[in-house]
Design a protein that fits this description.
alpha/beta, 6-stranded parallel sheet
Length: about 325
Amino acid sequence: MNVGIVGCGLIGQKRAAALAGATLVACADVSYDRAQALAARHSAAAMADWRKLVALPAVQIVVVATPHDQLPIVTLGAIQTGKHVLVEKPAARSAEELDPVIAAARKAGVRVRVGFNHRYHPSFLRMRQIVAAGEAGELMFVRASYGHGGRPGYEKEWRAAKAIAGGGEMIDQGMHLIDLARLFLGDFTSARGSTPTYFWNMPVEDNGFMLLETAQRQVAFLHASWTEWRNTFSFGLYGRTAKLEVTGLGGSYGDERLAFYKMSPNLGPPETTIWEFRGPDTSWEVEFREFLDDIRLNREPAAGLNDARAALDVVGRIYREQGR
């Protein structure tokens, strides 16, 4: 299938390199030079206006990798021209912004996937297999953290502007934590939290602390931070008979690793199995390959607009509670 990418920054470039056999035929970016640079590497057409890209008959799939304020606008435009879409998380600045996009996708009968690529890291694919096999027992709670320390001038970038980003670190890396917690525990009926700005001189939060609870009283305690002076990722899933913990995502986050701690009948030291996943990050390609299958089989993507809306609803509830 033929792909057009709107937004040719770092994430757009990652997507272009992980199309799982699909062909990149067009690139669009408000910075025409950036669109040209990516297009040249893939023998694709370059343009500055995304509307021209989504109107191209040759384009069947549109990847949307823009700042947050443009995500629902470009996605809606692509849907209205009959294209399938992979839109990066968070897909919008609020749950309400997604409602017309969801309605349009349903009416047009196209497939729309949201870029929650962390679901497709090998550690999480293995964790899902273990949980599905019942080897962790009844799930009780999640404890997770994700963060980095920014870079000089971070407070001047678009992620620090509420009108563009919709919020700070909670709607950024926090969205991945919410999505992963919801993947294992289900919908959250209660969402509380704190959104302080400790270090960066910006109007949005640089730390997001979340305490989420399902109707069955399963809890997710999540922390997303822009004040981690050493990049970190950890995700612990606790069941009645085992604990599963992912640490690292590769690169600056450290080697990806899954630990499986299986409790003995008499408790005490658990039986421990550890898997290490080194090498390049394959999650982007695995995710896109599944999206191609979604389109071919005409099935609803596993991470779709409704999943993004549910995660954004959690973020929105905490922002309102905090006066954000």
